[in-house]
Amino acid sequence: MPSSLPRVSVVVPCYNAARFLAATLDSALEQEGVAVEVLVADDGSTDGTGDVLARYAARVQVLHQGHRGPSAARNACIRAARGEYIALLDADDRFRPGKLARQAAVLRERPDVGLVYTGWDVVDEDGVALPRQGWSHEEGDVRRRLLHGNLVHPVAVMIRRHLILDAGGFDESLQVNEDWDLFLRLALRSVRWACVDEPLCEYRVHGGQSHRRAELVHRTRLRILERVFATPSLPADLRAARSDAFHEAYLLGAAELLAAGETAAAEAAFAAAVRLRPGSLRDPATLRRLALLLQPAGHQHQIDAAQQWLQVTRTIWRMVGATLAAPDLEPEIAGGRWAARAAVLRLGGRLLRKRLGS
Question: What are the Cα distances from residue 128, in Å, to 25, 105, 168, 203?
Answer without folding.
Answer: 18, 29, 37, 11
